[in-house]
Amino acid sequence: MPRRNKHDSVDDRKIAVYARKSKITETGKSIEIQKEKCIQLACAQFNVDISDILVYEDEGKSGFYADRPQYRRMLRDIEENKIRAVICYKIDRISRRTVDLLNLVQQMEQKGISFVSVSDRELDTSTRTGKIMISLLSAIAEFERDIIAERITDNMYELAKEGRWLGGTPPLGYCSIQEKATAGGKKTVANYLAPSEEGQRTVKRIFELFLKHSSLLGTAKMINNEGHKTGRGGTFTDRALKAILQNPVYAIADMDMKAYFESYEVSVWAEDKDFDGTRGIAAYNKTEHTKELDSNSRTLDPKYNQRTFRKDITEWVVSIGKHEGIISSADWIATQNLLEEISKEYSARPREVSKSLLSGLIRCVSCGSRMFVKTESNRYNPDGTIRFRYVCDVKYRKKGGCEKSPNVKGYDLDHIVIEKLCNLSKEDDAVLNEFFSAGNNMRMKSQEIEKEIAHLKKRINQIERDIQNQIVSLRSVTVEIIKQSIYADVEMLHKELAEVQDQHKKLCADSKDQDSQLESVERARKSILEFASQIKLVGYEGKLQLLRKILDCVIIKGNHVHIFLKGMDSDNFFEERKRGGDLCHIKQYRYWRL
Ligand SMILES: [Zn+2]
Question: Which of 346, 362, 388 represents a domain boundary (last residue)?
Answer without folding.
Answer: 346
